[in-house]
Design goal:
17 strands; single chain; 528 residues; six-stranded parallel beta sheet; DNA damage; 21 helices; alpha/beta; binds adenosine-5'-diphosphate; seven-stranded parallel beta sheet
Length: 528
């Protein structure tokens, strides 16, 4: 160890009581101390806060920490204050402070006492604050939850887009971006928007070796399937995510009636009930919380043993975050998602009211979820690939921890059928959604087909050697591989791509996985 390394180890012990750095912390801290722009991508629980807190504490000047949630900022400030005898060592600057409080914050910063100043992005737009911050030494600006800057992240906040301009006004200060959810696309957006392509980037692995990933086809028996699953995990803590409040209520009720201790949690319940249900779960007065995605932010229960998705999530990033609440203590964590293509179509329909750019993004993110559900490869490999990581691990690293690896799906050659399907899409000239394409293949008439006189065409019924379920499954798998694409604006018109036309010309082997069914599931509104 050189003298600098000894120094930061000493400071780590002095302030935080830890004898060792976790993961990439030491490298990150060295980069920050070197006054270089730094980008940190670590999963939740990876120890990101310390990466900027320690350099802030040991450097001259005040570090500005931008964070989107007031509650989280308050927690962090309290934690820092508990490390020191000086309250002024950390402050939050926001509009809820009184004039006297603001004066105190400014005084502590000016005197050099304040090492960490937490601000919400919208506070930073206030002229008065910016002018003040220009007059004091700033060690660096840390941007927590940096994915909020990207429309491709799971929590886009437009105020984050302004940050770079404001930071520029503060002079030459290094920027530290931190996030727990960064696909390559989001990473690129962060670096671009913060204008820091030169940043030292540190990325920890997102692999969670103790989590088991499973996808089951959603059938009408889903409730009894869930009950059976929970009874196999008797007395263990778990979370069930649903997309609608109505479903949350009905599943919680079904579980209760079946002797499982469960409570609902969603934004439609009053704050008192929500807090009560959350506490009951944390204190183990109930085993299961049935919730919308409103539940989970900041929940740190180490022994959640399963996370069930009753409905598929809107993106793989949300899925990763939500399943990440299982097995925090390193013990078992079973992540079970129920999948039905009807749910996908419901989500697509739900997006139709949104602005076009948002629709396009939502649609693309959803396609990745479909691909995950449909894949026959290792789910861990698939998820990590989505996060820009090539997983090549062994059993101890989770290589055998998913349904596809343990029970490989039966796969059958479908080259000729893919050609048939692609030809039908080409020959019907991009007027049909999946249902009519499949009907055309099997030779079934409905009003839409009649209106277009497709039933009089020579290719009508060309795929009647297989049934509707088969073609629907094949169509979805072909969509995932990119030979077909689904039009965004028309909500589901299927088109053939250049790659699809090439496939017709020179077909290659196409191994289709056999087991997904096409299920009907009841319609309902989606609200969280
Ligand atoms: P993140 O922000 O990445 O989700 P946190 O900063 O909240 O993670 O850290 C997660 C946990 O790890 C905290 O309980 C923190 O005290 C602990 N931790 C951080 N650094 C170390 C370390 N060097 N040694 C031991 N524990 C650490």
């Amino acid at each position: 160890m050189n003298s600098n390394e000894i120094e930061i180890h000493k400071e780590l012990k002095k302030y935080f009581g830890f004898s060792q750095f976790k993961g990439l912390q030491e490298q990150v801290i060295t980069s920050i101390l070197g006054k270089t722009n730094t980008f940190v991508i670590m999963p939740t629980g990876g120890g990101k806060s310390l990466c900027y807190q320690l350099p802030a504490l040991i450097q001259d000047g005040t570090a500005i920490v931008v964070s989107p949630l007031i509650a989280l900022m308050k927690n962090q400030v309290d934690a820092i204050r508990s490390l020191s005898s000086e309250n002024g060592i950390a402050h939050v600057l926001n509009s809820s402070l009184t004039k006297t409080e603001i004066a105190q914050v400014k005084k502590d910063i000016t005197s050099g006492l304040t090492k960490l100043l937490y601000v919400a992005p919208e506070s930073l737009t206030k002229e008065e604050y910016v002018t003040f911050l220009q007059s004091v030494p700033i060690s660096f600006v840390a941007i927590d939850e940096a994915h909020c800057i990207s429309e491709w992240g799971h929590d886009f906040r437009p105020e984050y887009r302004n940050l770079k301009n404001i930071i520029k006004q503060l002079g030459q200060v290094p920027i530290i971006g931190l996030t727990a959810t960064a696909t390559p696309k989001v990473q690129e957006d962060i670096l671009k928007n913060l204008d820091m392509s030169d940043a030292n980037t540190f990325k920890a692995s997102f692999n969670r070796p103790n989590l088991y990933y499973e996808v089951r086809t959603k059938t009408k028996n889903i409730e009894s399937d869930i009950i059976r699953f929970i009874k196999q995990h008797k007395g263990k803590s778990g979370i069930i995510y649903c997309l609608s409040r109505k479903k949350v209520e009905s599943i919680a009720e079904v579980l209760q009636v079946n002797g499982i201790s469960a409570v609902p949690y969603h934004a439609g319940l009053d704050a008192k009930t929500r807090a009560k249900h959350q506490d009951m779960f944390l204190m183990e007065d109930v085993d299961v919380v049935v919730a919308t995605i409103a539940f989970g932010m900041g929940i740190d229960k180490p022994d959640v043993r399963f996370v069930i998705h009753h409905d598929i999530p809107k993106s793989l990033e949300s899925y990763y975050q939500e399943t990440g609440r299982a097995g925090r203590d390193g013990g078992e964590g079973h992540c079970l998602a129920y999948y039905s293509y009807k749910d996908v179509e419901k989500l697509e329909k739900f997006m139709s009211g949104k602005p076009v750019a948002e629709q396009e993004i939502g649609f693309a993110l959803l396609q990745e979820v479909v691909a995950y559900a449909e894949t026959s490869m290792s789910r861990r490999k698939f998820l990590l690939h989505y996060f820009g990581e090539e997983f090549d691990g062994e059993a101890g690293e989770g290589a055998d921890m998913d349904d596809n690896v343990r029970n490989p799906k039966t796969r059958i050659e479908a080259k000729d059928q893919v050609v048939k399907l692609l030809e039908i899409v080409r020959d019907t000239k991009h007027i049909y959604k999946s249902k009519e394409i499949v009907f055309t293949l099997i030779g079934r008439i409905n009003a839409v087909i009649k209106a277009h006189k497709t039933d009089t065409q020579s290719f009508f019924g060309k795929g009647s050697d297989h049934d509707e379920k088969y073609w629907m499954a094949l169509l979805r798998q072909v969509l995932v591989t990119g030979y077909l694409s689904k039009d965004i604006e028309t909500y589901g018109i299927i088109k053939i791509t250049e790659a699809g036309l090439d496939f017709i010309k020179s077909p290659v082997s196409f191994m289709m996985s056999e087991d997904h069914e096409y299920n009907e599931s009841e319609d309902e509104a989606i609200v969280t």
